[in-house]
Design brief:
The chain is an alpha/beta fold. Helices cover 25% and strands 13% of the residues. An 8-stranded parallel sheet has the order 9-8-7-3-2-1-11-10. Strands 12-13-14-18-16 form a 5-stranded antiparallel sheet. It has a 3-stranded antiparallel sheet with strand order 4-6-5, with no helix packed on it. Helix 7 links the parallel strand 8 and strand 9. The radius of gyration is 23 Å and the shape is globular.
Amino acid sequence: MPHDPIPAAGGNWWRSAVIYQVYIRSFADGNGDGTGDLSGLRKRLPYLSGLGVDALWLNPWYPSPMADGGYDVADYRDIDPAFGTLAEAQTMIEEAHDLGLRIVIDIVPNHTSDQHHWFRQALADGPGSAARERYIFRDGRGQDGELAPNNWQSVFGGSAWTRATEPDGTPGQWYLHLFAPEQPDLDWESEEVRAEFESILRFWFDRGVDGVRIDVAHALVKAPGLPDLGASDIELVGSAPDADHPHWDRDGVHEIFRGWRAVADSYAEPRVFVAEAWTGTPERLARYVRPDELHTAFNFDYLVAPWRAALLRSAIDTSLAALGAVDAPATWVLSNHDVARHVSRYGRPQPDKPVRALADLAGDQPFDLELGTRRARAAALLTLALPGGAYIYQGEELGLWEVEDLPEELLQDPTWERSGRTDRGRDGCRVPLPWSGDVSPFGYSPEGSPAQPWLPQPAGWRDVTVQAQRGDKESMLELYRRALQIRHSHPALGDGALTWDSAPDDEVLSFTRAPGLRCVVNLGPEPVDLPGHDGVILSSSPLEDGRLPADTAVWLAC
């Protein structure tokens, strides 16, 4: 059911919110050029309101050369022309608010684009200039400075350093980029950098944005002297093995975010932050969401847990304990724009270790779409029953799977080239959505548009379009709609606590949410008996003679 317009003061809405992630480039193409845009998003806002989510998180919409899908920002105070205009963004925010949807945008504070005017000035002004103090430039090692300043590695492969060409044309200093060379790292020891980003926050908050998701929040502060990595420190995902990694999860980031919290709290309706922070332990993650810092943080331990009862419960328990200690809500997520879609992860034999990419699974095992879909349906009910908030990545409500056979010549993720074409990267989870019809572009672009979607859609998606699933009570879309409707109306769901119940099997998770709801998930291969209950509220798959089948979740009245 659509929401009412959001109230003038929404309280702690973020503690229970279900937030829908919009990867704008792949959501809906309004002008027919094959790229998603604000026009397409505005036309689909009623769909999102009707789905029952509380807010939208938009991936970067700023002007960008797109070296990393928009995470290389050239101007933090404007909209990329491929997506629309600043005026159109303002209108979209207002239209979303009228439909009861809040808006959370991405901010990328660790690095800019190499096309940002700051970085162009830094290259032009040369060594020792004030412009270079905004970034991390260093002289090289070796007799002529021909060696990188240290051994840090880029997340996308290769060295984290690139040598600049000085204004006189000679090889000069090196600049740090923990990601692509087109993404030079800012120096957060600079007061000018800190002031600039607080100003950027106010720019968007003044335009009605309700919150900000902080990209790689754990990476802003680097160790003094930029020491070499030790053998145990080289972790490219960003989960620091200890509390003294030279560029991941350093304690100095917390002073920055306390300043940001003061900005957010200065508004009549305080704005909200969510951190993307990869840390070594849940306890380290909890430091980001202490009462005077950020509001929420993504729960990656839950996202990467395989379909194994013990590992899922461990991720749930450790997250709730660590976050509860600082009175912060957990946020649960199954997929996003950086990981393989969970239908494809779950549709293969499950290991006893975290799963972030399909390469973490047995490579010789075929993908079982039926199994992956069944498990994804159960995971949706588990996720939406847990205490706290949740995120839905666009298309997961349709049961979309990872597109694993994109032609190599169309791959755009920088990981592909930086890995020597050994890692296909993240494009497979970013393929444009199917809305209607039997052939591509499946309603993603206006009818008759000559341009093709920027990444090709698989023909099999004809069966999982919004149009094909709408009104089908057995579809993934209607399961999500019903679950979100119940979540809004049932007093047990959202923020709060859970109590674990005794389970009939080691592969069964069972917990109670007061008042009156029990969630039972059977992750094992055989049906199990249900506990006593007062009725079935919702089941991810049909029950079998009153028993809970394999890979099925159920919400029970109790």
